[in-house]
Amino acid sequence: MREQLERRAFLLLLAAVTLAFGFILEPFWSSIFWACAVAVIFFPLQSLLVRYWGHRPNTNALVTLAICMTIVVIPVIFLTTAFVQEGILLYQRLDSGDIDPREMLIKLRDAFPIIDELLVEFGINPNDIRDQVISGVQVTSKFLAKETLTIGQNTFGFLISLTLMMYLAFFLLRDGQTIKELMIKALPIGDDREQALFAKFVEVTRATVKGNLVVAIVQGALGGFIFWLLDIPAPLLWGVIMAFLSLIPAVGAALVWFPAGLYLYATGEWVSATVLMAYGAIIIGLADNVLRPILVGRDTKLPDYVVLFSTIGGISLFGINGFVIGPLVAALFMAVWQIFMTDFNDEP
Question: Alpha helix (H) ranges present in the chain?
Answer without folding.
Answer: 2-25, 29-53, 57-68, 74-96, 101-111, 114-121, 126-153, 155-186, 191-229, 235-245, 254-266, 270-279, 285-292, 298-300, 304-318, 322-344
